[in-house]
Write a structure and sequence with these properties.
mainly alpha
Length: 134
């Protein structure tokens, strides 16, 4: 049962870091520190989510159960893919050689973050339902 609680803790922390990163990028762009905080929180969200996925994947593998049998796993997998692509798009904004691409990359980055947050929330609801919380 401990791996489930670790998974819950890491994934909840990832979700909160993602929310905080989005809030900072939306409401604190007038502060000098906003970008550093945004990048740090995004990186923390990725790290926490990867730890949460690794822990539960090892636990499911050890139990002999199938990995993708419930909606929680599918929402989580989709969220993880976008969670990995969002920072990549963010970093691409600063590395773009063709400066005309920056507005498109920025738009993709913003929408990727928003959709990631929605998928993370869906995975949380499905996970809580699976665990019997409601």
């Amino acid at each position: 049962m401990i791996p489930v609680y670790l998974h819950l803790g890491f994934m909840s922390t990832a979700f909160l870091a993602m929310v905080a990163g989005i809030v900072i990028s939306r409401f604190f762009k007038n502060k000098k520190w906003w970008l550093k905080a945004h990048k740090g929180l995004g990186s923390a969200a990725v790290a926490m989510a990867l730890l949460g996925i690794i822990i539960i994947a090892i636990s499911v593998q050890a139990s002999g159960g199938p990995h993708f049998r419930v909606s929680h796993a599918f929402y989580g997998a989709a969220a993880l893919v976008l969670l990995l692509s969002s920072p990549a798009l963010g970093f691409a904004i600063f590395k773009a050689k063709d400066k005309t691409m920056i507005p498109r990359i920025r738009k993709l980055h913003r929408w990727s973050g928003r959709i990631t947050l929605v998928l993370m929330a869906a995975a949380m609801v499905a996970g809580f339902s699976l665990a019997g919380f409601f």
